[in-house]
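Chapter review: from sequence to fold.
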Amino acid sequence: MYLSEPLKLAWVRVPKTGSTSFKNATQDAAKWKELGADHGTLFDDEVPEGYTTLITIRNPYDWVRSVYGMCIGERSHWGVYVNEEVYVNEESNKRRKSVDAFFTFFKKTQLDWVRNPDGAIEVDEVVCIENVTEFFSKHGVPLAGLGHENKTNSHVLGLFEWTKERRIWVRRKFAAELKFYPNDIANSK
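The token string follows.
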């Protein structure tokens, strides 16, 4: 979690949501200081009194595709997203890289970082990364924008195809996140 004393914000940083661009674009105004783990949950550390808790999320369809790209790559924190005992092939001790295996064993959503032990979402503000400029403007901090669009690598796009079943899966698994996005925003490019 990150704290901004000047803005009285406690930001839960979720991987693969444009969080590096967000942090860089807001650092001058926010003066973010890391509290605990970089990608820690809202409940790993105590939020100071008077702070507004904030999470930034990304279009769930883009987020799932981006996490898949991370899982087939060599990123170190891929295991938090999947059931590792099943996702890793016991015979070769290597990760299964098929999209179908990924969908079968995917376990985490963006809002899981702010769910309490009972499963309720406990955060003051959920901000779509696409609306960060408007959020900060509302709080009296003008931003010119993120200046960087966090796109999934093109090599992943070629491997990842949105089928009807996969879209239905996203609508079910990410129903809470999709409430923050108008219409069905599946990005099948």
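Two observations follow directly from the output. The mean pLDDT is 79. Residues 2-178 form one domain.
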